[in-house]
Amino acid sequence: MLKLRKNISLQQRLAELTGHLAEINGEGLGLEPGRLQRVFKNNFIQVSGELFVPLSLQSIRVFGVKRAARTARVGLRTTFRTGKAFSDIRLVQIGTDFIEVQARGKHPSRILFPLNKIEGIFPVG
What b/e readout covers 9-43, taking b as 16+ CB neighbours within 10 angstroms? Predict the structure, then answer.
């Protein structure tokens, strides 16, 4: 797992994903996916004309990202309720302030979690 650790911040990773369709997930938010239009140097991103603070969100799902070649099978414990949605998932990377996983499903996507929303990572299998 620790081999997937990289010295990249959530803002830097999101900047690499500018232009992709993104779904913003936060407490009480029920937003439709929109384009990740802009990533500011500090604190904010712009999705569908609205500004968000990524580190305050529960997660950001980004669509249209190729499947990662190198992953580790893990489970995640989050600070918010997910049922068992992340009890067996593929870890892509651990950044300086986020974790990136490969989402299940036929449409390739990634889910980025701010580290302050993760309580633990455990091996699966």
Answer: bbbbbbbebeebbbbbbbeeeeeebeebeebeeee
